[in-house]
Amino acid sequence: MPKDQPVLDLSPHVSDEVRKTTCYMCACRCGINVHMKEGKVAYIEGNKDHPVNKGVLCAKGSAGIMQVNAPSRLKAPLKRVGPRGSGEFEEISWEEALTIATDWLAPIRAENPEKLAFFTGRDQSQSFTSFWAQHFGTPNYAAHGGFCSVNMAAAGIYTMGGAFWEFGQPDWDYTKLFMLFGVAEDHDSNPIKMGIGKIKERGAKIIGVNPIRSGYNAVADEWVGITPGTDGLFILALVHELMKAGKIDLEYLAQYTNAPVLVDAETGLLMRDEAGKELVIDRNTGKLTPFDQQGVRPDLSATHRHAGITHKPVFHLMAERYMSEEYAPEAVAERCGISAERIRGIANEIARVAFEESFELDQEWTDFRGETHSKMTGRPVSFHSMRGISAHSNGFQTCRSLHVLQILLGTVEVPGGFRFKPPYPKPATIHPKPHYGVTPGKPLDGPHLGFVHGPDDLALKPDGTAARIDKAFTWENPMSAHGMMHMVISNAHAGDPYKIDTLFMYMANMAWNSSMNTRGVIDMLTDKNEETGEYVIPRIIYSDAYSSEMVAYADLILPDTTYLERHDCISLLDRPICEADAAADAIRWPVIEPDRDVRGFQSVLCELGARLDLPGFINEDGTQKYADYADYITNHIRKPGIGPLAGWRMGENGLQNGRGDANEAQLDAYIENGGFFVEHIPEGANYYKPWNMAYQEWAVGMGIIDKPEPYLFQLYVEPMRKFQRAAEGHGERQPPEHLRERVKTTMDPLPIWYEPFEDSAVDVDEYPVHALTQRPMAMYHSWGSQNAWLRQIHGRNPLYLPTNLMQKHGLKDEDWATVSSVHGEITVPVMEMAALNANTVWTWNAIGKRKGAWALEEDAPEVTKGFLLNHLIHELMPPKGDGLRWANSDPITGQAAWFDLRVKIAKATTPPSESQPAMPPIKSPVGTGPSELKWKTKP
Predict the structure, then answer these.
(1) Which of 211, 302, 415, 682 has the maximum number of C-beta atoms within 10 A of its C-beta?
(2) What is the CATH number of domain 758-907?
(3) pLDDT over 70 for what percent of the chain?
(4) What is the per-residue DSSP string for 421-436?
(5) Extents of the domains making up the chain
(6) How is 275-303 classified by DSSP, letter by letter?
(7) Contact 167, 153 (CB under 8 A)
(8) Could you tell me if 322 and 236 are in contact, meaning their C-beta atoms sit under 8 angstroms apart?
(9) Where are the transmembrane segments (predicted)?
(10) In the structure, what pLDDT confidence band is assigned to residue 784 with cuts at 50, 70 and 90?
């Protein structure tokens, strides 16, 4: 050893104790080891035993230590004492805060529960918050999904019983071709990165379809820089080529989908027997028969003639539509920005891998018709997609198109393809329908959200007006399974369909990055009635852990804890952490105690529910039923034998999993196991889940379903046809005249493509450029950019322009450009990016902050060089001159059409000193944080 070599401690003392819990720095919900010194968090690493991340942890997860020490954390309950938006509050006790909330909410519940609008943001306890809202009795509840990715989720469930992300995953072990469509980089990032690494190691090919080549697309073997909003057209061109070449799995389609089900030629509805079962022609007998009978071999080609009318199977209708030259590569190439030759090349590659590289597993299984198969056939092509194709006004049908493409190839729930994660698959018919029956002083008549199956299920009052403040489940957006959070404030301000009294929100930064039309929403929150001087939205209660922009616009603040200071439940009833081969759920628990006067929001709801005498939150003697959220997690029974957590429940002979009674030591068992529970699917039950009776029986035992529920994939979605028929004049419930044509056009039971609504609502010659946002891997919604470590990765967000637009406008890096839409204008710094669709600009989402928020300095880069595209977007479409308010949403689900935005660009003649618009600072209840954060635990 050299004489001057320093002596290094290669095994330093890292911690006194390791506490295992679940990360909350993004939606992956990875397992983490929290190293403690002197009762403080010293270090966070991945938990190698955890089923989600297997020890892998990203920058966000490690930076959780800065989140729990952030200067922006709220410190105590707050009551507004100045005007809304002033940020002037006084600290009050929890007793006073809960008394105020009770005094505001109790009269609403007693007289008219719909006057409460209770909407939650990116929390992970929606099963619980919806339970609270249901027992309050308001129909006005939903979470963030309506402005996030409901198109993907709803399209998947209506089509095949599940979708991407939390619903399923690629078969990383066997897939040989993996295609991504519009995947946000913060979603499921650790599992995707691990999966991509695994398949690259095997030499599998990755194709990324995205206008922007960053993140996952940057490591793809082939990048397809598609024009925004045209993914559905591109996918249907692939379908055209595959059908034309006969490269589809006919046996799979016949056995497991409604492709052979006959369509009534007069009504367009599926033909059924008296029991409601779909009818097919049996190849063995040539006769009409229910699809599920033992020994039936459904015929894809046979027709049925009766009373002079010929009824065709779904497959015939698909062939007639998609083999049309309308979907030929030459017909779509210019629109998609992809050459016809390249479209054909991708279709050929998909077909080659799916059929020439197919394989078999020696695994016996029995299907729902009682037939035993000796093999499982693998088709090693898999897909993954998220918000990029979902957040368009044609997103539902685009997502449906992608699911149909998978099904035609026979790649869903087979080795090498896409696989469902428990508790999925679940067909739409298993899920609840939306409920809206309001009775003063009583709970709502059922769950708020669900899946409609025709006009009779719409949430309409007797006079035909919307029962919900967001207008979900109406003729404007019939299949809005996640609600429409982005429309709540706008509708409440307009009194359309009615006025509300109190807006109650949790973790929803609607005064900034979570709103389309940010400036307009701020004006709505502060607007007063000219005659009375009262706020148009009379009361606003808000809960958050941090001093976000929304805090300044609330009247009462209920401060939440950070994720390491509270109990959380990642439940099979909600958004679990399952993998394709296992059911899994998890908890968070207070690995540290708060050093402020804050409480976990869910625990606050337990007490508030008791104060309001909500059934479900009080005992028979009127006392509080659940002391806190931990008590609820442990003792709540949603239905016999089913609670929030599936692990370590009580059975007749001791502990058991899935179904069982409450176990007072359940949370301790989870903590001892690392914060999670996992139950593996038996071998032979882990593929073909919708039709595999071994899986169906296992799922019943786990409490996922109550009885075996095999079903057919719905290439043809009959509920959509029912809405079409109503628009054609059939039935008692019909759409209003101004929506009749839109319903007929957009609600086609077979996937279609239509241009995004903004393209036809604005002059695309004046606004020729598409504008998008993406979430970076290092950030998660808005709260990442207060994190001292993560700010060093993304402290600002330029607008990225392709080379051709930089040259056209005479721009170079760090120049300023003015970007305009029909709604607004921003002036921002720009950067050149070659790997970008030639007619698209983009920026990172939620980096830009308002001065005074998040305890940031007034000259922080996030507030001087950061910005939001939200200022250019509106929750409503440009007026049509008909006096109606048309939501900027998908007409089927109501998902916010964030990515339809059209803009024009010009070089700023006089570069500003900071990004525009620059709003006045908000006064923060926590003040400005120190310029440096320093602390040290003992060595």
Answers:
(1) 211
(2) 2.40.40.20
(3) 99
(4) PTT----TTTSPPP--
(5) 17-68, 78-151+429-564, 228-422, 716-749, 758-907
(6) T--BEEEBTTT--EEETTSTT--B-SS--
(7) yes
(8) yes
(9) none
(10) confident
